[in-house]
Amino acid sequence: MISVVFLASIRERLACQQLPFEMSAAQFSVAELTECLAQRGDLWRQVLMDDRVLVAVNQQMSHADSIIHDGDEVAFFPPVTGG
Description:
By secondary structure, the protein is α+β, with helices and mostly antiparallel strands. The protein has a single domain (about 1-75), classed as Ubiquitin-like (UB roll) (Roll), CATH 3.10.20. The chain contains three helices and seven strands. The protein has helices at about 10-15, 30-40, 40-50; strands at about 1-5, 20, 25-30, 55, 60, 65-70, 75. The strands form two sheets. It has a five-stranded mixed β-sheet. Helix 2 (about 30-40) packs antiparallel against helix 3. The longest helix has 9 residues, at about 30-40.
């Protein structure tokens, strides 16, 4: 099982802070996880399939082809700006 975390405006839009996710395979890519979550409904698809959404696996910035393993934490968050 992995822990999926939604941060900042993504958390607010989805009204969900954290979601346990049972993996159906030994490993998943970030893209596969995102597609599975997007199947939860139109709002989920709209929010998570936005090209600007960032993803971290175990607090390391990741890409669509990054591999997720059982026990990992995956966080989705909006782009951040510095000042």
